[in-house]
């Protein structure tokens, strides 16, 4: 791949922001966190990762194996006040990504979701207020904060009526970040992520990160199961674009508690995403089955993000097409599948 002039300019401006800076990534052994860690190490940041490696989620030491001598890894929980206070102290930037990520589990285990996704985040915010008041803190929220979609594309003023506890708790945590900015001046921003995919995504189960799960099914020669006709539209965003959104917002002065959507603007049906995977993996097949009972209750309707706000604020827009993102992802997992199929 060739590097464009604008990419070179962008990388050097990120280097100016992050080189030599202390950065904490919670959930940093997971998919998005570990990809942010790689980008920051490249830029010369002093990275600390805090991750509890809870078995249901995507934390995986292999995700940082090639940079493990260049970062500090702390195995610990964002709900643990002592550890959090220690790792947060003096950080210049905090990417607070640790989470219970499954909306399905959030319905069955609402207290666990509340504990990690609200109390855990409050713990980190309190530590930042006390021990790193100059820090900039970014929070990874979700399209599921919107709940049922009324109109697309969805901008940040769309009503928020989540249909899962995960969505409710993400929305609640978003408000903590704004309040910490308004009350204490703690610089913060919230990024609402649509359907992410790419290297280092968990492939252990299909409770979230469906693209990774389908790639696994196809590589194993199994059927990819599509509920209904698969015509529901989603916004599939490649990991490099997600990383650049986080870095752009963190390196800007637009960290005043604002919420930003990110997304591609591509209207991609679920079945098109499956076809893009099958175009890369000839062993895969797809079948359609009726929607299981109760699934419709959590279906939000078509989702496409309106990303004009983040473009206006920091000049971010997605650059990776679904086709090339899937190609890169499949290549990564073909090479490393034994590290993810546990
Ligand atoms: N994957 C998605 O579909 C998706 C979509 C929108 C938003 N997000 C958000 O992006 C963030 C990162 O998700 P991801 O896709 O990288 O998932 P992931 O499961 O790969 O990463 C989450 C990480 O958090 C860690 N973790 C969980 N609970 C913890 C705790 N109490 N203390 C410390 N670490 C803990 C896990 O071990 C894991 O490494 C999350 O906040 C998630 O809600 C994810």
**The CATH superfamily title:** NAD(P)-binding Rossmann-like Domain
Assign the CATH class: Alpha Beta
* CATH fold-level label: Rossmann fold
Q: What is the topology, as strand order, of the major beta sheet? A: 3-2-1-4-5-6-11
* Total strand segments: 13
Q: Helix coverage percent of residues?
A: 40-55%
What structural category arises from helix and sheet content? Answer: alpha/beta
Beta-strand fraction estimate = 15-25%
| Small molecules held by this entry | nicotinamide-adenine-dinucleotide
Distance between the termini: 31 Å
What is the correct CATH architecture?
Answer: 3-Layer(aba) Sandwich
User: Low-confidence spans: pLDDT under 50, at least 5 residues?
Assistant: none
Task: Describe it.
It is a single chain. This protein is an alpha/beta fold. It has a single domain, classed as Rossmann fold, CATH 3.40.50.720. It contains twelve helices and 13 strands. Helix 6 links the parallel strand 5 and strand 6 (187-193). Helix 3 packs across helix 5, helix 7 crosses helix 12 and helix 9 packs across helix 12 (322-336). The longest helix is centred in the middle third of the chain and has 22 residues, at 110-131. The chain is globular and about 55 Å long. It binds nicotinamide-adenine-dinucleotide (NAD).
């Amino acid at each position: 791949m060739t590097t464009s002039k604008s990419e070179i300019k962008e990388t050097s401006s990120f280097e100016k922001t992050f080189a030599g800076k202390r950065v904490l990534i919670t959930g940093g052994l997971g998919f998005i966190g570990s990809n942010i860690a790689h980008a920051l190490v490249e830029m010369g940041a002093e990275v600390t990762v805090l991750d509890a490696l809870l078995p249901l989620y995507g934390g995986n030491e292999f995700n940082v194996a090639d940079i493990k001598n260049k970062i500090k890894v702390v195995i610990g929980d964002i709900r643990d006040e002592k550890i959090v206070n220690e790792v947060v102290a003096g950080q210049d930037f905090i990417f607070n990504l640790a989470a219970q990520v499954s909306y399905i589990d959030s319905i069955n285990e609402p207290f666990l979701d509340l504990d990690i996704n609200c109390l855990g985040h409050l713990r980190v915010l309190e530590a930042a207020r006390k021990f790193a008041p100059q820090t900039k803190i970014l929070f990874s929220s979700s399209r599921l904060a919107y709940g049922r979609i009324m109109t697309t594309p969805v901008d940040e003023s769309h009503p928020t009526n989540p249909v899962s506890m995960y969505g409710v708790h993400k929305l609640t945590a978003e408000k903590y970040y704004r309040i910490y900015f308004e009350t204490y001046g703690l610089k913060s921003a919230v990024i609402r992520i649509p359907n992410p995919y790419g290297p280092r995504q968990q492939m252990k189960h299909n409770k979230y990160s469906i693209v990774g799960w389908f790639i696994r099914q196809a590589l194993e020669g199994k059927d990819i199961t599509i509920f209904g006709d698969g015509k529901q539209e989603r916004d599939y965003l490649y990991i490099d674009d997600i990383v650049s959104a986080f870095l752009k917002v963190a390196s800007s002065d637009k960290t005043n508690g604002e919420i930003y959507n990110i997304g591609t603007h591509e209207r991609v049906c679920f079945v098109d995403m499956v076809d893009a995977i099958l175009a890369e993996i000839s062993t895969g097949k797809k079948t359609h089955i009726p929607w299981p009972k109760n699934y419709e209750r959590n279906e939000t309707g078509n989702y496409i993000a309106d990303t004009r706000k983040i473009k206006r604020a920091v000049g971010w827009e997605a650059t990776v097409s679904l086709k090339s993102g899937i190609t890169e992802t499949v290549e990564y997992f073909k090479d490393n599948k034994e590290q993810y199929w546990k």
